[in-house]
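Researcher: Re-running this chain for the archive, since the previous output was lost when a drive failed. Same request as before.
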Amino acid sequence: MKKAKQVPITLHSPLMGAINQVYRDHCADTLSVKKEVKTKYLSDDFLELFQLMKDEDVIWNKLGTLLPDCPKDLQLPFKRREQGFPTSIVLTSSGMVDKGNVLTILKDVLIDEQAIILLTGYQSPDSNGYLLQHLGEFTGDDAYNKRVIMNDGKSLRLADIRCRIIDIGPYYSGHADQSQLVDYATMPTRENNRTVFLLHGSEDARNALKDAIEQKSSGRRIVLPTDTRQWYRLATGGKVELDSLEAVALDACECDGAKMLKLSQSGITVQKSDDGILLNFSLHLDNQNASEILTLLAGLLNKEN
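Model: Regenerated structure tokens:
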């Protein structure tokens, strides 16, 4: 590493930058434990691993390098190259290259013959990431008709992409494969009547995973939610009751001269007026939860009185 070429690295993730700021602000906080200074949020193993002295200034300065901020100027890597830096590494979220901060710089990267995009994970079919991952397979009309969609509705034909695409997902991705997911869902320590919900992935992938789990553990109930209007009531013991709610329209009515909207469906009533919204609903609780809520309400009422 001492002989490695020094390359500027830019982290493009506002969320990670915000989280890192929290760590930088508070991880160096110390307290006295049996007359010995200890950090509140860092273990002794962490301090030893990064060779940090138990000194607030030393820790804070080191955390500044371990936990970098995210620059507000997302064009910084390209400006650096214009200023003489021959190489720059940009780490950013991708969301199958369909979402995330990568879209902000995608238009500058795709047409750059000197740029390289490293795909680090699975790319679902029909996503930007999938098109880039299989770029060499699209020829003829496909290369001119298929497009990578960027910010503000702009797009670029696959035939116009000039950067190199390298897929390192098989070596770098942290996603579990099917066999690992099946092993997790069918662990012997889990009850045989446990229900498994498969939420993410294409229909083909979810059905294949469902079949694999059922083959290894016939006692599992596998649910593949498809309707966004479905509600799942999870009771104790792993039992599931499924209710399907049908869409209903809001009816306008006049009530004492006030304009109101009223909706009644499955015990839920919503009334909207110029003053606000009134929501009435029924809620089934077991004896223990009902007792706790009543005690809480009684305490609040006594406090108000």
